[in-house]
Specification:
mainly alpha
C-alpha cells in the first residue's frame, strides 16, 4: 500500500478471496502447480469446501488493512 501511495494512489481497498464451485478447484490446482507451499494454508482457510474464509479471519484482514491505511493517511474510497 505504501508503494501505491508513493505512486499517487489516494485510496485503497482490500477484500478476502471467495472461491465458488469451479473457481475453487481451478484456483487450488493452479496454486498447487505454482505455489505448492501455500496449498495447506488455503485448504485450512476454506475448510470443508467453504466458499469464504472464517468471519474472524476476514475481520482481522479488514482491521489490518484499516490500520495500514490510517498509518499511510489513505482513504478507503475515492471522494466523490
Amino acid at each position: 500500500m505504501r508503494a501505491a501511495r508513493d505512486h499517487g494512489a489516494a485510496f485503497v481497498g482490500a477484500n478476502v478471496l471467495r472461491l465458488d464451485a469451479g473457481t475453487r478447484e481451478h484456483f487450488l490446482k493452479v496454486l498447487a502447480t505454482e505455489y505448492p507451499r501455500l496449498v495447506d494454508g488455503y485448504e485450512r482457510l476454506f475448510a470443508g469446501g467453504s466458499r469464504t474464509v472464517p468471519r474472524d479471519y476476514a475481520e482481522a484482514v479488514d482491521a489490518t488493512v484499516a490500520d495500514v491505511r490510517a498509518m499511510l493517511d489513505m482513504r478507503e474510497r475515492a471522494v466523490s
